[in-house]
Amino acid sequence: MDNVTLIVPCYNEQENIPEFYRQVKGIKIPDCRISCLFVDDGSHDNTKSLLQELSSQDESISYISFSRNFGKEAAMLAGLDYAEGDAVVIMDADLQHPMDKLPEMVEYWRQGYDDVCGRRVDRADESWVKRNFTNLFYYFYQKVSRYPLQRNVGDFRLLDKRCVAAIRLMRETNRYTKGIYTWIGYNKKEFPYEVLPRFAGTSTWSFMALLKLALEGITSFSTVPLKIASVLGLGVSVLALCYMIYIFITVLLYGDPVAGYPTIMVTLLLLGGIQLLSLGIIGEYLGKIFGESKDRPLYLVDEYNGEKFIYRPVSVCRERAGTAVRKE
Ligand code: UDP
Ligand code: MG
């Protein structure tokens, strides 16, 4: 019998959880036991009490609740840290990931694939700006990163326990999970799926959040932007040198008066701009180093299946390995 755990990050999903549960119960896969691990990411609605109720009634349901909202990336990591089972499937609580794909995913996994990932085929609901921005991001990312990014592939995927163990090792604070999935490698299989509309509620992703995520993706897995600064500096220096020789010759040979104000202004502004841009890029990486150097835990668990957690110094260390001390 195979054990497959669904990891479900939830942030204010009280309207979706009952329907999610109903649909999970409808899934039957031969020789496979499905359990759910919900991660309540500091919701402000009744998500937590719903999860408490479900887990007390049904032993295949467990939950973790965070001490506050840590974001989906942290919620997914907590799910991966706590999930037991031979494979896990990461799914959104809003039912945008079609549940009826589960048998197909498990089938691929049984054929020997370690990472069975869903590729979105229908992005018709997206605005023109978002679609083109996404295309631009993929194009740029592919140019600057050594690691290929899977196009239109998100978090909806089945991971073998070997992949789960590998991801648990990666404790970086600036998490870009999409990049992490490709970084770990293993045997990948893509399958197409249609993104369903949200069952209830609204998405928490704004355009600005996506922009931040795109920047995060690029700076987490590539240092090319830093090199851009050097290349720009070099280019400008070479141009400046050529210009200097040109002025030298015109003044010496032809006795031209040196053009003043406009040239100086243009050069000054151009150089100032490039310097600020380079500083900004360096700052972006410096900020990351700052975040990583604090080495804080990536999330704090408040409750695990009804048990309250207390972190002691040693338990914080243990949390990194995926467990933490529990208080009765
Ligand atoms: N989510 C979370 N923490 C957050 C934001 C979202 O755990 O801070 C969960 C949310 O409950 C949902 C999933 O992440 O299950 C995807 O969120 P959403 O539907 O808002 O994003 P989208 O589908 O638009 O990418
Ligand atoms: Mg959604």
SSE arrangement:
Layout: E1 2-10, H1 17-25, E2 32-40, H2 47-57, E3 61-66, H3 72-82, E4 87-90, H4 102-110, E5 115-120, H5 128-144, E6 153-160, H6 161-168, H7 177-184, E7 188-193, H8 207-221, H9 224-254, H10 261-294, E8 301-304, E9 307-308, H11 313-320
Parallel strand pairs: 1-2, 1-4, 2-3, 5-7
Antiparallel strand pairs: 3-8, 4-6, 5-6, 8-9
The protein binds uridine-5'-diphosphate (UDP) and magnesium ion.
The site of magnesium ion (MG) has 5 residues, from loops.
Provide the succession of SSEs.
EHEHEHEHEHEHHEHHHEEH
Please report the number of helical segments.
11
Give the strand line-up of the largest sheet. 7-5-6-4-1-2-3-8-9
Strands, total number = 9
Computed CA radius of gyration, to the nearest angstrom: 25 Å
Q: What does the largest sheet look like?
A: 9 strands, mixed
Oligomeric composition of the shown chains: single chain
**What is the overall silhouette?**
elongated
Strand content: 15-25%
Tell me, rounded to a whole number, the average pLDDT. 83
Low-confidence stretches: none
Helix content percent band: 40-55%
Structural class: alpha/beta
State the end-to-end CA separation.
32 Å
Ligand identities: uridine-5'-diphosphate, magnesium ion
